[in-house]
Amino acid sequence: MKMKMKTKLLILLIGASLLTSCASVKQHKLEAHDQQKVTDQVIENQRHLLLRNTEGKGFGPQSPRDIELIFGNNSRVFNAAPLSMEMNLCNIHFHKNAEHKGGEFTKYAGNGDGHGYQSGYKYSGHLTEAELTNYNAEICPSNHGSLSPGDTIEVHYVYSTAQVKPGPTLGSCLSDSIKNPQLRVETQIYVLVNDKKARDFGELTQYGVKNNLHQALGIPIDTGTPIQYAGSTTGPSYTK
Length: 240
Known about the structure:
This protein is mainly beta and 240 residues long. It has helices spanning 40-54, 201-204, and strands at 2-3, 7-10, 88-96, 107-108, 121-122, 139-142, 145-147, 152-160, 183-193, 199-200, 207-210, 213-216, 227-228.
């Protein structure tokens, strides 16, 4: 996993990339029950069940992380993935709020709905009133909410050692020839602002072929020194 810090994003063009999709997009408004956040006890119970169901089974470390913590105690050993420039881009997607705590994203969004939505971390810096001006249309609406100026998103540019090309899901990172490729996730955390001078999301998610490999061409190189850690991902499916 490779992380970089904040850059601003032009909200008017969000979702312009064909590869980047809103999770579980449905064209209806968020219902009242989706806005409720579960209690600390619910989260504690979920963590207990997760520990009980995975203990001793050999799983590697998993996201999310406090990326400002240097040390860990997971004893699983596996090789680091190659550099992304030596792999194929296979998918781009994003999550509302930062999965990882660190840098300028340390404001806890709350426990969320208990199913992985509405939690994470928000931008803890300052935005101007103009940047927060309401946009007169729903942005990426789904049954889990929508996006607004001031929101944080974490964008994952996923790379695979398999001979694949970019596609709409993490299943695109696998092939019939290899079901256990090495993966690398290049990550950027963006703040949405209503500002035509901010970066264009369509440009940030451009992709193409470079040196005979599929590559993301718009990942910023001016958002800080990357933080890298070894970890695992869920693959095309996950347990809620």
